[in-house]
Amino acid sequence: MMTVLVTGANRGIGLEMVKQMKARGLDVIGTARKPAEADELRATGARVEQLDVTDADSLAALAETLKGVKIDMLVNNAGVGGQAPESFRDTDFAAIDWTFEVNTLGPMRVTQALIDNLDAGQQKTVVHISSVMGSIEKNRGGYYGYRASKAALNMMNKSLAQELGKEGYTCVVMHPGWVQTRMGGPDAAITAEVSVKGMLDVFAGLSPDDNGRFYDYQGESIPW
User: Fold this and answer.
1) How far apart are CA 130 and CA 199, in angstroms?
2) Where are the domains of the chain?
3) Helices vs. strands in the chain: H and E counts, helices first
4) Three-class SS string for 137-182?
5) Is pLDDT above 80 for 185?
6) H or E, element range at 113
7) Record's PANTHER family (predicted)?
């Protein structure tokens, strides 16, 4: 049975991903910063583990807890929207620092912490949930910290793909769409159910030829 670990799985896209993965018969590990409060996640029947992607002790504890567990796919979903100032003049750079800690460095920390588990898995797939807002070509202004954090994540993934691809890995970044979650808001274009179904279909079709690519939830390539 394929084993998948999903970070930030206590709500929104992460929670829906766990639900649909379980429905597809996958063995799923979902992480949350506060597992005691993750009632819906526990109700899915997934294994629940504590993880704060910005905390070294939390990462080390997860790696120790999962020592010897084979992980076929890692989905780095945990993220924050960051500050949305009206203009550059209002930008809070301390807030941008935090956005990078979670959205850019967080996924890399998790991947590094679980690399032995991924080495032992069959699929050797790493998916980073990014955003079209990380596309330089499609930048329409604003959201300085969020856009930059996702563009940096995309670059990190490209480097990771170059290195780990030689070891049989497939590392991709994925735009889930504008989704009706706490982050996306109620006016977003699609539901979490639609977004996740699309992404899981894309995941199922990934091969080494996709290594280093940037896709949306419908499997369409996004320009860098």
Assistant:
1) 12
2) 3-216
3) 8, 7
4) CCCCCCCHHHHHHHHHHHHHHHHHHHHHHHHCCEEEEEECCCECCC
5) no
6) helix 106-113
7) SHORT CHAIN DEHYDROGENASE (PTHR45458:SF1), SHORT-CHAIN DEHYDROGENASE/REDUCTASE SDR (PTHR45458)
